[in-house]
What we know:
This is General transcription factor II-I repeat domain-containing protein 2. It comes from Eumeta variegata (Bagworm moth). By secondary structure, this protein is an all-alpha fold. It folds into 2 domains: 2-127, no CATH class; 129-196, no CATH class. 66% of the residues lie in helices and 0% in strands. The protein has 11 helices and no strands. α1 (2-13) runs antiparallel to α3 (34-58) and α4 (64-86) runs antiparallel to α5 (104-121).
Amino acid sequence: xxxxxxxxxxxxxxxxxxxxxxxxxxxxxxxxxxxxxxxxxxxxxxxxxxxxxxxxxxxxxxxxxxxxxxxxxxxxxxxxxxxxxxxxxxxxxxxxxxxxxxxxxxxxxxxxxxxxxxxxxxxxxxxxxxxxxxxxxxxxxxxxxxxxxxxxxxxxxxxxxxxxxxxxxxxxxxxxxxxxxxxxxxxxxxxxxxxxxxxxxxxxx
Length: 205
């Protein structure tokens, strides 16, 4: 993704030199039209945001729920950008907004398509949202809404003052290591291990 952004930026930065060269050769190139260059400027900004998201995904020491949080935040940003562009506001696309007479509606459609592609690609994340919520806030979970085989273990966690204190004081992953490996506590660990084991790490875009 970083290489793609670098290539896109290079092409954009050389647009004037390329146009001058083609003029010397008495040739025209449709890729250098104002419309195409405007599209390229939009792509420069968007690939920058995608590259930043990918770097977040690659950060070490993260849990799968962290990756889902990054994804949800990015999708919310896409919604924001789309709504702003629909009203003619390209504030967050600085390279692109430098142009005049931009057909913002077109780029709103591009952002909508990107949102849909991300939703389809990471649909498994969405399907596991309840599991992520249970993993990140076991001491505050509404037990009656949780899977029935976990309810007793969750009640024990929520009424255990030592575990509740540890939840506030340690990293999430360390907290789960503190949960006793005996029933009814152990079913919580087994549930999350079954759900999370085998999830990929590293770049996923």
